[in-house]
Amino acid sequence: xxxxQYADILDSIAxxxxxRGDSHFKSRAYENAARLIxxxxxxxxxxxxxxxxPNKLDGIGKSLSAELLKIHETGESPMYKELLAxxxxxxxxxxxxxxxxxxxxxxxxxxxxICDLATLEAAAEGGLIAALPGLGQKTEDKIKAELIRLKxxxxxxxxxxxxxxxxxxxxxxLEKLECVERIEIAGSIRRGRxxxxxxxxxxxxxxxxxxxxxxxxxxxxLREIDHVxxxxxxxxxxxxxxxxxxxxxxxxxxxxxxxxxxxxxxKDHNIAVRAxxxxxxxxxxxxxxxxxxxxxxxxxxxEEDIFAAIGLPWIAPELREGGNEIEDALNGTLPDLIDxxxxxxxxxxxxxxxxxxxxxxxxxxxxxxxxxxxxxxTDHSAFVPVxxxxxxxxxAAQIExxxxxxxxxxxFTILAGIEVDILSDGSLDxxxxxxxxxxxxxxxxxxxxxxxxxxxxxxxxxxxxxxHLNSFGHPTGRILGGRKGYDYDLDTVxxxxxxxxxxxxxxxxxxxxxxxxxxxxxxxxxxxxxxLGSDAHSTRGMDEMRYAIQQSRRAxxxxxxxxxxxxAHELLEATR
Length: 576
Ligand SMILES: [Zn+2]
Ligand SMILES: [Zn+2]
Prior knowledge:
Blueprint: H1 3-20, H2 24-39, H3 44-49, H4 62-74, H5 78-85, H6 102-112, H7 117-125, H8 136-152, E1 158-159, H9 160-174, E2 182-185, H10 187-191, E3 195-196, E4 198-205, H11 208-220, E5 225-231, E6 235-240, E7 245-252, H12 256-264, H13 267-279, E8 282-285, E9 288-291, E10 296-299, H14 303-309, H15 325-331, E11 345-346, H16 360-369, E12 374-380, H17 392-407, E13 413-421, H18 432-437, E14 440-444, H19 453-464, E15 471-472, H20 490-499, E16 503-507, H21 517-526, E17 530-533, H22 545-554, H23 568-575
Parallel strand pairs: 4-7, 11-12, 12-13, 13-14, 14-15, 15-16, 16-17
Antiparallel strand pairs: 1-3, 2-4, 5-6, 6-7, 8-9, 9-10
The protein binds zinc ion (ZN) (2 copies).
One zinc ion (ZN) binds near residues 444 and 474.
């Protein structure tokens, strides 16, 4: 299990204890621990594996530590199970309704026996919520609107980063087996879809008929597995304790490319590929490409072979959505996408100066290990207090500090930057002089997100025209699977960004993926510059750049149009 999964359990415990009516003091400890674990640079699992007791960590006491050790050992929390047994099944569903915290859920449960989304809806329709003390008509209307929003966002799909990290932890366990020659996560995760229904893992061995026993035994023995649904010769399906379904398939090494292509999909892409094969007198399935006249397989081993057999160059998984990819491949107009090797630097990250966990030097070291040539240090401005952001005095001192650090490196550039709040009136939360003096300004919204569309557009236009921004950070403020994000006229703001040479950020932070691929494609096609940022709050967070990379690939944006493919000098020229 990864840190997010541990933290989710602790958060649920805190919520359930508050609904039960425990003192806030007690549940607060669980909330704080969840926050701590979410931000930890190391995996709690690894620490425990190394024999480190979690109570060595600040803010984790004895009983919490015991609970974490139990989760580590058994994959589930006895306390969580016990709490959950006291309530009807759907009680935690209610936390998905924005505006319903534990206190309100307790009130609704105690007074109206509301215990899931269905009973909440019935009560709202019946006008019962408005009649409760302290809630009123406005709250009831808000709840009704939220219920409509939740109906439109499917609950059986999980956010990509969660799906991918759950899949990777299974891959990590299986690839240790000697018989495993190749292993990949396929399906929508490989294509980079924002949410996934399930996790598809494809394993190849040189003798699958013999090896599948060991591979499946290892898989179903993993502690994150709740129960096995189907176990066969080639495929085993199991449900994780988190509720997600995982399918593991074992294939022979010689057919790995065909199977990988087949199980990566999408369905529409596969249909288009099959149609093309048919026209050429071929058939394509999970074993390979077959000549119809003599039933002979002509390609199987690699994806490149499969595509070549039907006269196409390899098409990146992120493009396989059944759109224009086959036509583009035939015309030689597939975009030259960015990948990790082409990313020269990361332009959004936080250090201990605001709410990050690591120093500038540590971030530089990590950046070098990722092969970067530069980074921008962009700590918060002071407006939102929980970020511990910088006042002008502190920012001035930090610019100095970055300059001094930078002098220590001849082959690496540290840009002095800031993530400055775009305030409600569109002004920036920092001295103009300092903003001009530093190298890289990310402008972001962290407050006042519920503005009317016209007002939000005005606010952003003013920021775009400030003359200070290099990039517009997490440009919709959405939280993946949660908050919808603020409303503004994208085209109008994009036009102003282009005019003022402000790049739109694709933020790779796992909870965000913001801009999303569709909006990024839109602004990029208008001519806006795109910049990728990890928004790291620790050295480990810098790895989340991969999500920004993958989403930009889904948006079909060529590497040349992404600022991170430039060197530091070119980058500053482009946004100046
Ligand atoms: Zn931010
Ligand atoms: Zn940030």
